[in-house]
Amino acid sequence: MKILYTAAHGGFAAERVPLGGGAAVFEMLRAAWPDVEAIVPATVTGRELVSFSEWEYAAFCRRFEAESTQAILRYEPKDCVVLVNDISEGPDFARLAAAGYRVFVIFHVDVVAYVAAIYGRGWVAPERLVQWHARWERFCPDVLQLVFQKQRDCVRHATACLVPSPAMREVIHRCYGPQVRVEVLPWGTPSSVYTSARRPAEKKLTLLTLSRISPEKNQHVLLEALLAWEQQGLLPSMRLRICGQPAFMRGKAYFEKLKELADQLRQVEVEFPGHVTGQAKADQVAEADLYVFPSSHESYGLTLMEAFAAGLPALTLDHAGARGVMRADFGRMASPDGFLPALQELTRDRARLREMGRAAQAYALAHPFSATAERLRALLLGGA
Predict the structure, then answer these.
(1) d(CA 287, CA 312)
(2) pTM of this structure
């Protein structure tokens, strides 16, 4: 039985562009499964992909929908199982189901929940948006159909939806009903290993973030918290490294906002090292005392697990991804209003931070990505 794996953000690893967790999972699964048949874009580069406008990205989604559907249809349904890494960029789910294919879809992002959280600022529940779309669908432009129609078709026609956290399963069931088959598969700790030794404790306290620079990643929350702390007159001298580069629709404008905020700080040395990978990434983690993950909407958080594996405790906002993995003995999960108090508490005692880091590392190493990959492969080939 052949596994056909479609991924709109797959195949760009050599370019080292910030495509996100979905691209990282694709590369790790492909490495774990040497016999997988990968279906990836053939006519676009990763650098082009992260620079598309909303309308250009919508056009790319439709192109890859057609390309991946045609690639799958070359195989007999009895000879393969389809794993889809995308929703909006995914193949024609209805057509594949009608042809008899078993299709499993990874929800790296619940696109409707993302729109509700980021564009709707959390004022409207995802299930309400689904209801509104059903009522006004014929008036919606294609960019909205890629959000609402594609996700609806996915849950209607997929053999199963695969999500990394129980909270995501709850949202899908609220939106589309409990009859939708949803399997929870937390990704665990990526297989990358950090080899750099931890730096000496006497150096300046260092905070670290690792993600693309984009509004939903919320790096401004951290900078604003530090500014508020500095205005209180109590902020100790420290270093902040915001690793990542601008990506996708609003990344460049957001980066300018971050630099303006950073320029206002006087007691914090703020650095923007850019998108780091490999040993450069390992070195950044080795020199940090606390990993800060201020994202407002995350399905899981692979970089969070990487930080844990390297012995870093963490401070996160409360979201589905953090809820699935955070524990009080290796970090804090805070509301936006509680972010600064949590940051102050954690940075007060560096010996306690190191103790939390050891607990975080033990947790991460007990939950390897390889175990999830084996479980997923068994699910795909199990015939159910």
Answers:
(1) 10
(2) 0.89
